[in-house]
Amino acid sequence: MSTLDDGPGAESSAAVAEILPALRVVTGALIFGVISLLGIGFFLSGEDMVNEPEFMSWLGLGIGGLMFVQHLVVPNFIARAAIRKQGSLEEVDPDTAYHVLAQVFHTQHIVGSAMLEAGAILNVVFFITTNFIGNAVFAGVMALVMIVRLVMLSSAHVWIDEKYQQMS
Questions:
Q1: Contact criterion met (CB below 8 Å) for 93 and 15
Q2: Domain ranges for the chain
């Protein structure tokens, strides 16, 4: 583990090292939930899948698309509000500032992942009720986006460093 004297980015690396295990567990659990329910949906639908969407199928795809867009927008609003609430972190030592920013990153990541999961779960439910394969594909794509977010967690220190520089 890095110390605070390891050079630029050491503070953010230490802060990220504290939040990464929890973020990996939470994001992994959300992904597992989507994939498990999708598997149950395929088991229940059997071979009775349809290619023509019903109104409920379109509704699920529309709401899922909205949740995808919201996962890009809402977490940033939350992060900005949390950072604004903290005020200027110039008065505190860098270690404390980086830990505050790490917690903000933690919150925004979980909110974004939960929005993706909500859109995916909704589409799995509509897949189970309508047997429209498009809803299952959409849920699978949302799960893949969540997996990409999970893989990219290791670059959290870049976000934290950037926000710290903006606040200084």
A1: no
A2: 10-167
Residue corresponding to tokens 């329910």: 37
* Secondary structure (3-state) at 50: strand
* 25, two tokens: 């567990």
Tell me the pLDDT of the chain (168 aa) as tens digits.
334 344 445 666 777 888 889 999 999 999 999 999 999 999 988 777 778 888 999 999 999 999 999 999 999 999 988 888 876 666 777 788 888 889 999 999 999 999 999 999 999 999 999 999 999 999 999 999 999 998 888 788 888 888 888 776
Phi, psi (5° rounding) for residue 88?
-80, 130
3-state secondary structure of 7: coil
Rounded-to-integer distance, Cα 113 and Cα 31, Å: 9
The residue type of 92 is V
Name 34's bridge partners: none
Burial code of 78-97, b = ≥16 C-beta within 10 A, e = fewer? Answer: bbeebbeeeeebeeeebeeb
